[in-house]
Design goal:
Blueprint (H helix, E strand, L loop, with lengths): L10 E6 L3 E6 L4 E5 L4 H5 L2 H5 L1 E4 L4 E4 L4 E4 L5
Antiparallel strand pairs: 1-2, 2-3, 4-5, 5-6
Length: 76
C-alpha cells in the first residue's frame, strides 16, 4: 500500500531551458513544466527570468520585474 504524506513542497532553486521551467525542491525532487503555462515567463528576457525570489520559505516563486508569482503546489 502506498501512503502519501501530507507535506508541503518547498523550492530551493530555479533554472530554465529554451522550453521549460525547472524547479529543484528542497527534498531533492525536480519539477519541470512548459514555459507556455506561464506567458509572462515565456516572454521575459533571460535576465528577467534569472531574477526570481523564493516566497513563503519556498512555497512560492516571485519575479518582481514581470509581476509573476507561482506556487510550487500549483506545479504538481
Amino acid at each position: 500500500m502506498n501512503i502519501l504524506h501530507n507535506r508541503t513542497a518547498h523550492a530551493a532553486h530555479v533554472y530554465f531551458d529554451a522550453e521549460r521551467l525547472h524547479v529543484h525542491l528542497a527534498d531533492g525532487r525536480e519539477i519541470s513544466v512548459p514555459l507556455d503555462w506561464f506567458p509572462r515567463l515565456r516572454h521575459a528576457t533571460d535576465e528577467q527570468r534569472q531574477q526570481w525570489e523564493l516566497i513563503g520559505q519556498g512555497v512560492g516563486l516571485h519575479w518582481e520585474a514581470i509581476d509573476e508569482d507561482i506556487s510550487v503546489a500549483g506545479l504538481f
